[in-house]
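Lab notebook page, bench 4
Experiment: in silico fold of construct C2
Operator: M.H.
Input chain length: 711 residues
Purpose: comparison with the prior construct
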Amino acid sequence: MIFVAGPGHGGPGVVANTYLEGTYSELYPEVSRDAEGLGKLFKQFSFPGGIPSHAAPETPGSIHEGGELGYSLAHAFGAVFDDPDLIVACVVGDGEAETGPLATAWHSNKFLNPVTDGAVLPILHLNGYKIANPTVLARISREELESLFLGYGYQPRVVEGSDPGTMHQSMAATLEAVIAEVRAIQAQARAKGRPTRPRWPMIILRTLKGWTGPKEVDGKKTEGSWRSHQVPLADMATKPEHVRLLEQWMKSYRPEELFDEAGRLIPELAGLAPAGSRRMGANPHANGGVLLHELKMPDFRGYAVAVPGPGTVVAEATRVLGAFLRDVMRRNLDMRNFRVFGPDETASNRLGALFEVTDRTWMADGAPDDEHLGADGRVMEILSEHTCQGWLEGYLLTGRHGFFSCYEAFIHIVDSMFNQHAKWLQVTRQIPWRRPIASLNYLLTSHVWRQDHNGFSHQDPGFIDHVVNKKADVIRVYLPPDANTLLSVADHCLRSRHYVNVIVAGKQPALQYLDMDAAVKHCTAGIGIWEWASNDRGVEPDVVMACAGDVPTLETLAAVSLLRQHVPELRVRVINVVDLMRLQPAEEHPHGLSHRDFDALFTTDTPIIFAYHGYPWLIHRLTYRRTNHKNLHVRGYKEEGTTTTPFDMAVRNDIDRFHLVADVIDRVPKLGAIAAYAKQAIRDKLIEHAQYIGAHGDDLPEVRDWKWPGR
């Protein structure tokens, strides 16, 4: 069993118990099990250089910090998927219970298989108040409260009171009963081998807020009041009466009966703790890297799209990836250590090949015409990005592997959850006893440039900007331009450890540029000159045309072909970026290029026209220290969205081939008047484009069916 502390500032409960059982001192020997160690334990709490008030990564036995509320229950369920012997006791605070993610996570019991999964014991702790207000669930009738959880599919048991002795006995008896009930449910399901959804037990624990603390402070009610959420005894240096209250409060626990004169827990109490890995701070499930096994991976090269020449073959990149993921799933079915997560979008995102080997997890009622739903399914879909992310994090933190696909615009829903996980990874890198876990892998598709029917609401590439705010040690961003580069990137990400990997790739039919050998080399480098699209070998380029993302790559290449037609003497270098962090200096990111290598690619004084998948200022932010930044001109998404054709989306944001050609003409000094006819021709094409889509609702055939013309 592991313990998840959902309530805010719940860290002391976990720290205290791991100290008493001995694991804390084993991991932090300076916090010894005596009076000196107790002094260090107390002083470090919420103190500079010490530990937070939450169940932070430094806390043994924790997989959930709880600093940001709402995710405890999803983490708990993620932890028990595919771990049939594990129980997670998850305390949910009544303030946390008001959050949207937590409210949805109660439905996780419709995805829990009693044959192959473990169990979650939710303990809803109602103490009545948040920071300064009553909580909703504490202010409804017991009948309504119990009906709510019966409706969610649980069997609630209520433990309530204010006398500590009575409450401890009542809680102990209830815990024994519900654990026996959980094991009986599992035993029955496993004996039959035919899982049905049981009514899992849960506990509703109702106590006073600030229970056993001072009843009043400065004449105001504290125990049983919102005031106990704050610092109940402030201004200790100037209010000696508060010091006396604190002393009375601490002495009320009778520490002289619990510890000997040396400050050690007395043997009869120390002996109550379980031994070894059964202790809450030593359970390997709470240090998932200890349990992590490598995925059995197929050779991604076997899924390659044949590309006899660049820009002539069409394929759906994510459909190709789906076949690869299908076989990753197939090879790891026996280990039961790989799942795919997403908010009802696996098929939409062209990953449907997964359903050749597994189903969507489903334990709720079925219907005769259901497709690909099963109790033993390994694709986790619920229309809640929060729940999907929480499940995946819990799954990874307990030693397994996963993959999360999502519409690009709606991954913003989990911005804050990503923040918390990235912070966890960053901190645990500095904790020697925390073992690396599998990376959290996002596939963002159905992206900004191809929302032909959904429109403006589905157009937002800004998650990348959010991700790169985090420490370089833990984040990676990839924009593979075609199917073969996507395969190479996905294989790398699934093998990686302790990162957040963000992959952005389109799902629509698109041109393919690199055969597999070239794709592997390009992805390994992360950035490179596409010689087949360039004509500057042996001379200084007149312009550098850079691109990152599938649609920007298409438009850049189309622009280059137009430049060859209209100004054939122009020397053009084409650079494609797969690993976005290669743009940063090496001293800022481990994948960053040295200034020498960056200058070799982009030159020190040549105009650069950069077509980028997302918001253009991110490229400026990543490259502002580069020598040639003054000549860098970036085109990207600038919030010009609507329901329109694919090419018109590019036109509206000035990232289309015609605007890119105009940018080159405007920024290459030697062109000037020479290119006046070319500039007039592209102006006319933009007018023709607007007229055509207005009449036909589709892009010009020469745009829609464009292919790379070769040299």
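Observations: The domain at 300-510 is CATH 3.40.50.970 (Rossmann fold). The mean pLDDT is 95.
Next step: discuss at group meeting.
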